C-alpha cells in the first residue's frame, strides 16, 4: 500500500510543468488500487473532503465595503487563497454561472445559457421555476463535479446547487435536496455537518451548499442598502458555524466559497422599454423574446424581422445589440445552436430592459446579467482554504470555469471531459 500511496501522492503534487506525467501517474495509481482490490470505501477514506459554498449575489468588493459584517469570511479568506474577483460568463446570472462553476464550461457550451431560454429542437422554454425542466438531466451538458465524483467511486451531497436535482448522465448526488428557499441557512449548515459525520461508505467527499439571501437583499433593496449589509452579516454568521464545524473533522477538508455574480444598482428611470423601439406585436407566436432584465434573447427564423429589430435597437443609447457573428468573441456562444438566439441585446448598467411602459413591474433595485467585461460589479468572490493552500495567497481576478479543475485535483480525479477551465490557473498554487 505504501507504493500505491506514493504514486498517488507524486501525481497529486506534481508541478504544472509536469502535469501530463502527473496525470499518467495518477491513472497508474488508480489501476494499481483496482488491481489491489481497493474498495470504494477505502478510496473515500483516502480522499480529502471538499465543501463548496455559494453565496449568491455576493459582490467581489463586499468584504471591503462591509468589514464589520464579514469577520468570518475574512478569517477564511486570510487562511488561504483569495482572488481579486471571480468573473462569470455571459449572462452573469444565477443558473448559467453556477453551472459553469461545477462543469468548467462557459454557458454557451454547457447549454444553460440563462435563467430562461428557448430550445428550438424541443420547442420548449427552460425556466428556473419549471420543476420538470430543472429536474430533467437532458437539458444539462458537461459533467458536473458530483457526477465525476460518483463515477470515481466517491460519494457526493448537495444542499442546493443548479443541476444537482437533475439526473445528468443518469446520475445524481448520493444525497441531494429539492430546492426550497424557505429552508434557513442554519438548517443547511447543520445538514452538511451531519453528512460529514457519517462513517466512510456513507460520508460524502464532495458537498455543495447554497445561500441566496445576499442576492435577494441586493435585488430588493440594492447592493448599498442596510438590508444588504444585514444579509451579508447573516451569511457570515453561518460561514462561521461552518468553519467551526469543519475544523472538528479529523480528515483533510477544503472549503471553497464562491459567488455566481455580483450586483449593480439599477436606475429605474433609465429603463429601456422595447415597445418604444420595435413592433412587439410582430414578436409573437413562433417569434420569441426571452427577457433577462439586463439582457434579452430574440428568437426568430424570419431574417427580415431580425434585421429590422437589430437596426431599431442599435439606435438605442446604452443598449448593445450583438449579432451571431460576434457571439463567440463577446459572449462565448457558438453562432448557431438550438438554444442560441438570433440576436442578443444587453443594457449598459444601470439601465434595465422592459417591455411596456406603465405595464411592466418596477425594475429591482439591484440587478445582474450584464456583460461582465464591461461591468466590474458583475464580479463575484472566490476564497479557498485547506491543508495544501498556503495562507494569504492572493491572485488577480479569474474566470469561474477555472474552479472545476482545482476541485478535481483536490479529489484526485482525472478530468475526463473537454472543458474551458485551465488547471494552470489555480492548481500550481497548491502546497507540495
Task: Give an overview in words.
It is a single chain. The chain has about 425 residues and is of the alpha/beta class. It folds into 3 domains: about 1-40, no CATH class; about 45-105 and about 130-265 and about 375-430, Alkaline Phosphatase, subunit A, CATH 3.40.720.10; about 270-365, Gyrase A, domain 2. It is built from 16 helices and 20 strands. It has helices at about 1-15, 20-35, 40-45, 60-65, 70-80, 95-105, 105-110, 130-135, 145-150, 185-195, 215-220, 225-245, 305-315, 325-330, 405-410, 425, and strands at about 50-55, 80-85, 85, 115-120, 125, 155-160, 175, 205-210, 255-260, 265, 270-275, 290, 295-300, 320, 345, 350-355, 365, 380-385, 395, 400. A hairpin with a 3-residue loop joins strand 12 (about 290) and strand 13 (about 295-300). It is globular and about 65 Å long. Residues about 1-30 have low confidence and may be disordered.
Brief digest:
The chain is an alpha/beta fold and 432 residues long.
* Helix/strand structural class: alpha/beta
Strand content: 15-25%
CATH superfamily of the largest domain: Alkaline Phosphatase, subunit A
Quaternary structure = single chain
- If helices are DSSP runs of H or I spanning 4 or more residues, what is the number of helices? 16
Taking the alpha carbons of the first and last residues, their distance comes to 21 Å
Tell me, what's the shape?
A: globular
Rg: 22 Å
Give the second-level CATH assignment, the architecture of the largest domain.
Answer: 3-Layer(aba) Sandwich
The CATH class designation of the largest domain is Alpha Beta
